[in-house]
Design brief:
11 helices; 324 residues; Rossmann fold; alpha/beta; binds S-adenosylmethionine; nine-stranded mixed β-sheet; four-stranded mixed β-sheet; 2 domains
């Protein structure tokens, strides 16, 4: 079945000729790093879905609980509006929001945005079946591409939303730049809904990213498989091991791939050869854990005024509704 309601914003990202500038930059600097978007090829997205089901991985079930309690209230506050989701993945939690909007409006427009083509196509197809009266249109590309592609002259109000604490993958500087782009994409009166993971004891955090079934380890290593097929690389996954640690000073989980043996890696499409030393690491993700008070100040400074905050009883996760 051909999914017609999909716009491909980045042909190059879909194409093996992607220039991969960010990979070259990350692997030629010291210490080495890679952008977390490379976790997500089809297999990476499947592994992320498995992570969401793990007993140690509290963020998905906690955010799901908050949405199950408050999605109706969110829809009541915003009224019917165009719903635009950044990094939608399987859009599983989003169904709670779509159900709430279906109660207040016969029809709604939903635009899921993701860089991972397989899961985006599948979820658009499934959502079209479940919500036949909604207009659903996927955008395949990065956050930045999708935000600059969205129409600026729209009549209906809009709610942009970003769940799963994916904003935690940005450094503080990247976060400011991102929120600035969000504020510029919205008209006055529009909404921004943000799901964020909150600070909590180190044991809980480290267990969530070092699960006993080692699905997170497979997810982390899959980034190298992704680079291998995308850029004709020869990473040997058996030479790397996964580790996630909580850096308390910066309030962030840091996920690494540690190199076990000195060797050389080539990525032919990028014309890149990188030498790795035994004991060297690649930083593949930071996942910042937020303080609700500080984050609300940061949002307000970007002209995104927090209207309401919801959390779970343990205050492990937060959902903030802002108005531009
Ligand atoms: C942590 S998952 C969250 C998925 C879902 N929103 C949730 O809360 O369960 C991040 C999602 O964002 C997508 N993604 C990651 N980096 C991206 C980027 N730079 N631009 C667009 N999508 C991205 C991934 O493909 C993945 O589906």
């Amino acid at each position: 079945m051909i999914i017609k309601s999909l716009t491909i914003l980045d042909e190059h990202y879909q194409d093996l000729n992607n220039d991969g500038e960010d990979v070259i930059q990350g692997l030629t600097q010291t210490p080495k790093s890679l952008p977390p978007k490379y976790f997500y090829d089809d297999h990476g997205s499947e592994l992320f879905e498995q992570i969401c089901e793990l007993p140690e991985y509290y963020p998905t079930r906690t955010e799901t609980w908050i949405l199950s309690q408050y999605a109706d209230e969110i829809a009541q506050i915003t009224g019917c509006c165009e719903l635009v989701e950044l990094g939608s993945g399987s859009s599983t939690k989003t169904r709670l929001l779509l159900d709430a909007y279906r109660k207040i409006a016969d029809s709604c427009r939903y635009l899921p945005i993701d860089v991972s083509g397989g899961i985006l196509k599948t979820s658009v197809f499934q959502l079209q079946e479940k919500y036949p009266d909604f207009s659903i249109h996927g955008l395949l590309g990065t956050y930045e591409q999708a935000l600059s592609h969205l129409e600026s002259n729209y009549l209906q109000s809009r709610m942009l939303f970003f769940l799963g604490s994916s904003m935690g993958n940005f450094t503080p500087q990247e976060c400011d730049k991102f929120l600035n782009q969000i504020a510029h994409t919205l008209n006055a009166g529009d909404y921004f809904l943000l799901g964020i993971d909150l600070q909590k004891p180190t044991e809980i955090l480290e267990a969530a990213y070092n699960d006993s079934q080692e699905v997170t380890a497979a997810f982390n290593l899959n980034m190298l498989s992704h680079l291998n097929w995308r850029f004709q690389g020869n990473f040997d996954l058996s030479l790397f091991t996964h580790q996630a640690i909580y850096n308390q000073a910066d309030a962030q989980i840091e996920m690494y791939l540690h190199c076990q043996k000195s060797h050389l890696v080539s990525l032919d499409v990028l014309n890149l050869k990188v030498s790795f030393q035994a004991g060297e690491s690649i930083l593949t993700e930071i996942s910042r854990k937020f303080d609700l008070v500080n984050l609300q100040k940061q949002l307000a400074a970007q002209r995104l005024k927090p209207l309401k905050v919801w959390t779970d009883p343990q205050k492990w996760f937060g959902l903030i509704l802002c108005q531009a």
